[in-house]
């Protein structure tokens, strides 16, 4: 999650303003460990002007900044929605491979933060509120991490470096994806039934 | 029989498809989809940064691999290994316990090169080999990938690692500026030896890092200049600093290391800046490198104020004019004023490298071994210092008379010892506090003075404005500070004010103050401390606040 903090570096000037800013970052993890990330934020007039002139009006630059800010992941499917009237934006993108399965078969999601102060909203949804010191405490970030429906026994732990991690159990996707096999079985049934009917008629 | 042809064909097709699906799923090898994102060049000077995933937010790596399981089987213990022949032996990067069909893993490689890579004086093209295997795979089916990349020589510094066609602005051109700190080598035994000699032979002792006295620190800065001047060090150019976004030829520079500058007795602007930064850091000061279009110059930060010197003022006999240490310092300060103006106007070409700050982020210096031959060369250079008593005169004058800018530094103000009380600034100045008049060097014209506690934790700022009320006074102060990049929030209660300032340097200050009658109409006297120190300094704040009249 630390790498996500850098999303704000694209609008570094925001830290210049004493007014408290709020940023919401939602991470929805899917059944194969990828995450759909949504970043949303409201700004005051001055912040909006600076953000728009730096990256808001140049989505390619915004994408590149986010990619540079999250070097650990492969990112795709960027989509930026701006609401100029209300000075807010929503940025959606997908981060591949944010969760991994360890040798014990547990899914692991690393927060990259020591002693992360997490709040359990539901058994599959956690919240973390932070105020990064690099912004002088003027930006409050609210992270919401949502684990997939199939996730079981979600719990927090620490890695070897004392950083907070999430551990959970989850079965792999079912084998029903083998279309060739199911199509073949379907054709056998149809062909067999049709042949039998023709043969006996 | 004819009517059975079609249904039997469908049946047959079904059998073929079913059989094919089993054959396909049984063969899982070769069906991993791999995508490699690699770096173009590795700079040996920054090898510690590449090795550390926490350094500079982990943006410097050798490669990252996107591995997607496109088979219909779950793969177990997927192991990713790599090697760089001649530099790094086969090393396990990651073991992924399981990879389900469709699952993607992102594996990133922070290569651990040996220290001796800093001895590399030629560039070379190297190959990285990657192997991906998993439980039950045949040896022949192990996935192998490779790519080539460049390892530059130890002196090469690339201003950016962004491809030329991707450069969109100056932030892109200076994308690697934090890595300059890797070329600043305060722990190099040769630099240490050189610093000790400056302290002893040029400065005859110094206390800059202990007293945190700007005057003493400036004496140290000019002492370094004096040392280079007396050893007849000369300025020599090479590929310089980019001046325009199209200046692709200058996106890399050959930097002689500080030890090579000392012993080679020549350097260009950036190299001299690295030398100064190394010596300043070794002496316990906070070195800063100022980067401007086509040029760089060194300085330091003390008590949140910047100081600079024009290190290339040494010129050389072949180049004509040679500045004295005083002239070089004045020139540096002049440039610094322009720098601050440009930076405040948002010109992205004006940037600084705060060496210690980026050190803390993981951009650590390369380590260099001791070298008796180089020490001998330093001895020869030091011997030349004692042959030039004329030049030493300036330093002696500075020491005794404080002939340079007295602690105002970038602000160009003057200082006093602040002993006892003063009625001139509308409050009682405690013993030992330093007073700086015009601390912003007219950047904030209404800022009359600043008084700073010996431990630098408490500051009193005095603003004189043409106003007739407290509200009007605060509005004018707010507007002036905003123009200088600092923003305040405040509440007024009669003539008393409580507020917070977010300064352009990123600090947050909490303050209390009063508006009183002043020479221009109204005066704001504000007592401030860093917000995290507010509790522990509240007694001092109250004491000064109560003395405002």
Fold and architecture overview:
The complex is a heterodimer of chains A (201) and B (549). Chain A is α+β, with helices and mostly antiparallel strands and 201 residues long. In chain A, 24% of the residues lie in helices and 40% in strands. Chain A is built from four helices and eleven strands; from the N terminus they run αββααβββββββββα. The longest helix of chain A has 22 residues, at 179-200. Chain B has an eight-stranded antiparallel β-sheet with strand order 17-18-19-20-24-23-22-21, sandwiched between helices. In chain B, strand 4 and strand 5 (88-99) form a beta hairpin. Chain B has 14 helices and 24 strands. Chain B has helices spanning 5-26, 47-51, 170-173, 189-202, 208-211, 214-230, 258-264, 269-282, 325-344, 355-360, 372-386, 389-401, 470-483, 538-547, and strands at 32-38, 41-42, 63-69, 75-84, 88-99, 104-109, 124-133, 143-151, 156-158, 234-235, 252-254, 266-267, 286-292, 295-302, 305-308, 351-354, 415-416, 434-437, 447-452, 458-465, 487-493, 496-502, 508-518, 521-530. The longest helix of chain B is centred in the first third of the chain and has 22 residues, at 5-26. Chain B is α+β, with helices and mostly antiparallel strands and 549 residues long. Helices cover 30% and strands 28% of the residues of chain B. At the A-B interface, helix 3 and helix 4 of A face helix 1, strand 3, strand 5, strand 6 and strand 21 of B.
């Amino acid at each position: 999650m630390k790498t996500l903090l850098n999303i704000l570096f694209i609008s570094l000037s925001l830290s210049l303003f004493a007014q408290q800013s709020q940023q919401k970052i939602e991470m929805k993890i899917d059944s194969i460990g990828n995450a759909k990330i949504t970043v949303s934020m409201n700004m005051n007039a001055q912040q909006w002007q600076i953000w728009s002139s730096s990256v808001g009006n140049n989505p390619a630059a915004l994408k590149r900044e986010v990619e540079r800010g999250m070097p650990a992941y492969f990112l795709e499917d960027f989509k930026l929605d701006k609401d100029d009237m209300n000075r807010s934006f929503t940025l959606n993108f997908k981060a591949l491979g944010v969760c991994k399965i360890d040798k014990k078969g547990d899914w692991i999601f690393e927060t990259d933060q020591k002693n992360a102060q997490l709040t359990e909203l539901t058994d599959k949804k956690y919240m973390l509120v932070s105020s990064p010191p690099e912004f002088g405490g003027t930006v409050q970030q609210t992270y919401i991490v949502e684990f997939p429906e199939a996730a079981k026994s979600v719990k927090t732990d620490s890695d070897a470096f004392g950083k907070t991690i999430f551990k959970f159990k989850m079965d792999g996707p079912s084998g029903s994806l083998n279309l060739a096999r199911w199509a073949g079985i379907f054709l056998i049934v149809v062909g067999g039934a049709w042949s039998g009917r023709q043969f006996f008629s | 029989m004819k009517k059975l042809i079609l249904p039997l064909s469908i049946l047959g097709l079904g059998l073929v498809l079913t059989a094919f699906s089993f054959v396909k799923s049984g063969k899982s090898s070769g069906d991993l989809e791999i995508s490699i994102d690699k770096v173009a060049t590795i700079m040996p000077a920054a090898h510690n940064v590449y090795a550390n995933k926490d350094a500079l937010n982990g943006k410097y790596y050798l490669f990252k691999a996107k591995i997607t399981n496109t088979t219909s089987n779950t793969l177990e213990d997927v192991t990713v290994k790599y090697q760089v022949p001649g530099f790094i032996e086969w090393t396990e990067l990651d073991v992924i316990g399981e990879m389900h069909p469709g699952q993607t893993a992102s594996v990133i490689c922070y290569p651990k090169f040996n220290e001796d890579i800093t001895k590399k004086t030629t560039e070379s093209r190297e190959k990285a080999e990657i192997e991906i295997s998993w439980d039950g795979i045949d040896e022949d089916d192990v996935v192998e990938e490779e790519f080539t990349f460049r390892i530059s020589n130890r002196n090469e510094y690339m201003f950016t690692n962004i491809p030329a066609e991707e450069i969109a602005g100056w932030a892109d051109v200076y994308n690697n500026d934090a890595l300059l700190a890797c070329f600043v080598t305060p722990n190099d035994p040769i630099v240490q030896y050189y610093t000790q000699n400056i302290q002893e032979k040029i400065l005859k002792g110094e206390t800059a890092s202990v007293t945190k006295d700007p005057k003493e620190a400036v004496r140290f800065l000019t002492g370094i200049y004096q040392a280079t001047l007396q050893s007849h060090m000369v300025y020599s150019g090479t590929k310089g600093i980019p001046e325009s976004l199209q200046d692709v030829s200058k996106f890399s520079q050959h930097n002689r290391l500080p030890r090579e500058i000392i012993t080679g007795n020549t350097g260009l602007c950036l190299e001299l800046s690295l030398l100064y930064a190394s010596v300043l850091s070794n002496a316990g000061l906070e070195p800063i490198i100022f980067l401007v279009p086509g040029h760089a110059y060194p300085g330091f930060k003390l008590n949140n104020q910047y100081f600079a010197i024009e290190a290339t003022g040494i010129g050389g006999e072949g180049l004509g004019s040679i500045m004295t240490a005083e002239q070089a310092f004045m020139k540096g300060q002049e440039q610094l004023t322009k720098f601050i103006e440009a930076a405040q106007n948002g010109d992205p070409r004006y940037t600084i490298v705060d060496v210690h700050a980026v050190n803390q982020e993981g951009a650590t210096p390369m380590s260099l071994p001791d070298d008796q031959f180089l020490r001998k060369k330093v001895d020869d250079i030091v011997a030349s210092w004692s042959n030039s008593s004329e030049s030493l005169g300036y330093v002696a004058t500075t020491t005794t008379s404080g002939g340079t800018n007295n602690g105002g530094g970038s602000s160009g103000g003057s200082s006093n010892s602040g002993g006892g009380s003063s009625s001139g600034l509308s409050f009682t100045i405690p013993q030992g506090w330093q007073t700086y008049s015009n601390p912003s060097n007219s950047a904030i014209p209404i800022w009359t003075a600043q008084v700073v506690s010996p431990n630098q934790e408490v500051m009193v700022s005095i603003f004189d404005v043409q106003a007739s009320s407290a509200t009007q006074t605060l509005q004018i102060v707010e507007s002036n500070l905003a123009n200088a990049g600092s923003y305040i929030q405040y509440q007024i209660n009669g003539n008393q004010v409580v507020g917070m300032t977010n300064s352009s340097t990123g600090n947050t200050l909490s303050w209390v103050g009063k508006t009183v009658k002043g020479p221009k109409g109204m005066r704001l006297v504000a007592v401030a401390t860093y917000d995290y120190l507010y509790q522990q300094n509240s007694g001092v704040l109250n004491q000064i606040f109560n003395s405002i009249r």
